[in-house]
Design goal:
Helix content is 36%, strand content 17%. The chain is an alpha+beta fold. Among the domains are: 81 residues, Herpes Virus-1; 170 residues, Jelly Rolls (Sandwich), CATH 2.60.120.
Length: 535
């Protein structure tokens, strides 16, 4: 009860006629209080008018006066404890229904604090079973026997009353409702723990995915920055080579033009002198005075010295090879730039290096493996080994112990001194018995060397590889999600070959074939080497 309602006794707070909290409380002359509607109805039925409590009679019906104090207290109490949406209301209250504090499983009624008082004080009501307030109390009663559902039949998985266990659920596994409640509560708690674990796993997965996106953004931005830098350098190199080419040609043109202008100037000077002499000769030849002509011809100026221009020529400069030389120079620059890019790419894939060891359970009986699983070569003696399903029985193949079904991985193998070998990755379900077709369609992504210098990618059809020099150490890189398998010449930092657009759905295993011994000619082993990042 609220602090305000505690100031009143129960008799003062309840209407003695309806036994409910006052509604529109009024006072009559004797000093007793009633609900306005209750006393009015009482006097309408009973005559003469008298007080229901003290039986004091009134000659005329008294005027009803509002008891403002009790009205305010009752209103205050109702306001403080009125049932809110979702709360169980008192079933006894009229008008404003207060919040129920308890429900009685015997009366099947929910009570507020005031109306609960009899169950707490009267001996007969004290024996009733009270629970936290619930709605629809009738649902707690057996509809067939009108008894309280206080047992649980585990056989039929339903709540039953005591009579049900005798009549309808005889010999069934029946336990008290509380026992099943505790068991189910523990089960729900366990379920909730499992759900919370599932939620946590998914939150962690969200964080993992977000982190992957962040890494993708970072890697992509770095790649863009690197690409922009490279292509900017290439563009500048092309523009520089173009400018140098134009400058070279223009310089040749300038020199040719300058030479021609010198010759023309010299020729024009000679023409000028010759024209002067021509004028003198012409004037003298027109003279009809014999003596004058003969005398003047002796004093005629000698012909000015002239150059023999017969062999003089201005030959256009040769531009042959100028563009070719410029392109060759540019190609060399591009080649150097490409080498730097390949070094960066190799360093990047080397960051996905994994530890790989050879699996003797898959090795062909002719293969000889070291104890640490890092080297393998082919011997001439076939060992007597179990023919387990994992072992190759025809080709001298061996797989790694390690498998990969996601992400990226990289390993390096030394092939120095060998005339035959094959390397790559294969899927788990490949054929290991009898004749093998090592193509991507059959689950093989490999490259090979035959006859010392014949390199090929074992695609369908095979791809002949033209390499400047044979690799001494081969790096194998796989991006599972991207569907990429690439092979690298580690020492030359060069890309040998790439399988792209692959679709991986199984575990992938590193694959090794050291080739036949060939009478000792190919006796060098394949060696799985530790990966050292390029500086």
């Amino acid at each position: 009860m609220s602090a305000a309602s505690c100031l009143l006794t129960e008799d003062q707070f309840l209407c003695s006629i309806c036994l409910h909290v006052f509604t529109d409380p009024v006072t009559i002359p004797c000093g007793h209080n009633f609900c306005k509607a209750c006393i009015t109805e009482h006097w309408n039925v009973n005559f003469p008018s008298q007080c229901p409590n003290c039986n004091k009679r009134f000659s005329t019906r008294p005027e009803l006066k509002v008891n403002t104090f009790i009205c305010e207290m009752a209103a205050h109490s109702s306001e403080q404890q009125a049932a809110k949406p979702g709360e169980v209301p008192c079933d006894v209250c009229t008008g404003t229904r207060l919040k129920a504090l308890k429900s009685c499983l015997v009366c099947l009624v929910s009570y507020c604090e005031t109306h609960l008082e009899p169950h707490l004080t009267r001996p007969g009501l004290k024996r009733h079973q009270l629970i936290d307030p619930v709605e629809n109390l009738e649902d707690r009663m057996c509809t067939k026997h009108d008894k309280l559902l206080e047992l649980f039949c585990k056989t039929d998985q339903m709540c039953v009353c005591a009579l049900c266990t005798v009549l309808d659920h005889k010999n069934h596994d029946v336990v008290p409702l509380k026992e099943e409640y505790e068991r189910k509560k523990a089960e729900l708690k366990k379920t909730d723990v499992e759900i919370q674990q599932m939620i946590q796993k998914r939150r962690l997965k969200i964080q993992e995915i977000k982190h992957s996106v962040e890494l993708s953004e970072e890697d992509g931005n770095e790649e863009i920055a690197g690409g922009v830098q490279v292509f900017t350098a290439l563009k500048e190199s092309v523009e520089r080579s173009q400018a140098e080419l134009i400058h070279t040609i223009k310089e040749k043109q300038r020199k040719t033009k300058k030479q021609a202008e010198g010759f023309i100037k010299e020729l024009e000077q000679e023409i000028c002198e010759l024209k002067k002499r021509s004028t003198e000769v012409e004037q003298l030849s027109l003279s009809e005075d014999h003596l004058h002509l003969l005398q003047r011809s002796r004093t005629l100026k000698a012909a000015p010295p002239t150059k023999n221009w017969t062999g003089v020529r201005v030959s256009p400069p040769s531009y042959e090879g100028t563009v070719v030389r410029a392109v060759n120079q540019l190609e060399e620059t591009l080649s150097n730039q490409m080498k730097k890019l390949l070094e960066i790419e190799l360093k990047r894939v080397q960051q996905s290096a994994v530890d790989v060891t050879l699996d003797p359970d898959t090795a062909h009986p002719n293969l000889i493996l070291t104890n640490d699983g890092k080297q393998g070569k082919t011997g001439d003696v076939k060992k007597n080994l179990p023919t387990n399903p994992e072992r190759f029985d025809t080709s001298v193949n061996v797989l790694a112990k390690q498998s990969f079904s996601s992400g990226r991985f990289y390993f390096e193998v030394q092939v120095k001194g060998k005339t035959e070998w094959a390397l790559g990755v294969v899927r788990e379900s490949i054929n290991r018995k009898g004749s093998i077709t090592p193509t991507p369609q059959k689950g093989f992504w490999t490259i090979r060397l035959r006859n010392e210098n014949q390199y090929s990618a074992r695609d369908d059809p095979p791809v002949r590889l033209s390499l400047r020099s044979g690799p001494q150490k081969v790096g194998v890189f796989v991006d599972y999600e991207e569907g990429l398998v690439s092979f690298h010449d580690v020492d030359a930092a060069a890309l040998i070959y790439s399988f792209t657009g692959c679709c991986f759905t199984e575990k992938l295993y590193p694959f090794f074939n050291p080739g036949l011994n060939a009478g000792g000619k190919n006796s060098a082993p394949l060696i799985i080497s530790p990966v050292n990042d390029l500086e």
